[in-house]
Amino acid sequence: MANMTNATFHTAEVDQDPKESIFELKDGDGLPFPWKQFKGLVGLPGIPNMVQRMQNLTHFVAREDDIWICGYRKCGNHWVWEIASMIIKGKAETIAEPKEDYFIEHEDLPFFDSKPSPRVMNTHLTSDWIPKDVFIKKNKIILVIRNPKDAYVSLYYHMLGLKKKNYEGTWNGFFELIPQLIKYDQCYDSWLAYYKVFWEYAKQHTDTVLVVKYEDMLKDPVNHVRKIANFLRKPIDQVLCEAIAEQCSFENMKRNKQTHREAGPEGERNTKPELKKWRDTAFGMYRKEYNMADMLVLTGLNDLEKDTKDSIFEMIDGHGLPFLWKQFEGLVGLPAIPNMVQRMRNLPNFVAREEDIWVFSFPKCGTHWIWEVASMVINGKAETIPVPKEDYFVEHEDLASLDSKPFPRVLNTHLPLEWIPKDVFTKKNKIILVIRNPKDAYVSLYYHMSGMKRKNYEGTWNGFFELIPQLMEYEKCYDNWMYYYKAFWEYAKQHTDTVLALKYEEMLKDPVGHVRKIAEFLGKPIDQKLCEAIAEKCSFDHMKKAKQTSRVAGPEGEKHAKPEEKVWRDAAHGMYRKGKVGDWKNHFTVAQNERFDALYQEQMKGSDLTVAFEID
């Protein structure tokens, strides 16, 4: 057996369970993962005196008004326990005690006896192992079901994040534990073993068991609060239903960061704050209800993700929703795509070519537009470019891919000035700097982020807005408009031979004149007819109607393009939304506008850059 010092939950001084209660499997990377076992039930939590508690459970005395929340791990037990507790109390107020104080695997019988009625108990034990008195007294049971794939992914992060577990395996390694566990007829950590038994019981006892499905609750939380209240015979009005649903929303429960008591030795009643329980980089008890595709991309669960977990940079929006980026050597707010940090690390090795052309801009400031214009000018044709702009986007592509592009390359990036590869300046590449007013840029960025399937962000504009001042607190930030343009504007003024600065709002007024200006800057003079043809082909309406393919940044070597509809949610605007000037006025509240103006004035102090927030 592997050395258990760094593997188990417990210490020998406090654990009175026999050594043979230890049940250990090896993950896919050979790391030991310990549980406990009791009378054929394997996969029990490896906490002190777990076996002692299991032996004592037969003596548990239920009360007729006990309520039980049952469900496999990471399937929403906390959520439903909070809802049921608030319904019983008749108030939409966070419960002062942690759920763990009513969790039968963690507590001793005398402790439960001390709890006032009605008790809202909870457990992950299957119906075979729940104390018989629960069924004799016909206690009300709410069975919570969540799909097993999301449950196992969430369980992985739970185990990875707990300090006491001390497990540092990868998702790929952890995954290999699942088929091992499924082989056992009775297994605490087998989703299939759990629900196969409980589902049959629930169907036969609809008078005492209410089945709720996690995914259905996410769609309609208010009606599920009402359903639970009716089942518990505690009917409540619509106002309280809505208040409880809001108070028990994922965002609120995560933001509250309630204390959670670690299962300790018998009689130990101390509560440990959230930060003491979880590792520094852990998500904690509440991560996010990501869909599977999103998690594969954003959190590096796919085989080809090489960035480390500490590259993840998370903020909470104004409504408590987590928003993920990556970070690299002090630069925060980088796109949360696979191998972003690896690409950043390799960028100093980028070899520029003397005829390279660059389109630089903050996100959502017209990069696609100018890239198309410049590409058509270089090709001498008003024809849509067959490859997507993303294939020439340095944040998304590996050096080998960029090296394979034919001459001349029209490259593009949103990287701030100091992060551009030095060889670009050494070779005196031509740079087109595109500037758009920050208010419209941030509104467009909000729709971009909320529309992408892989981002899985469902926040409102008001929630997203609160991320902006947070981002501005960082000295170096990929998603800080002011940090980006303050530096680039000064550079552009000093290098007019290699940098052409264009303003989005002025281009909208005179697109043909700006096509000509770009052509002259690139040393590719073109006639009036072609200028007009390119301006028309690259008009916002034409580009939106064309619905070009947009490639999602994929793993290294993945070169296929994904059609527009595969990248964006069904109701999303896609890459092209409105392209207008002044749409920010339909989103910014008066208070938001005043806050933003103050931040803008402070951060742009000393700069003579001017932008138009509206045009005639």
From TrEMBL:
SUPFAM superfamilies assigned: P-loop containing nucleoside triphosphate hydrolases
Family, similarity comment: Belongs to the sulfotransferase 1 family.
Gene Ontology molecular function: any one: sulfotransferase activity
Keywords: Transferase
Organism: Lingula anatina
Residue span(s) of domain Sulfotransferase: 65-280, 355-607
Domain of life of the native organism: Eukaryota
Pfam families per record: Sulfotransfer_1
Listed name of the protein: Uncharacterized protein LOC106171406
Gene3D superfamilies: P-loop containing nucleotide triphosphate hydrolases
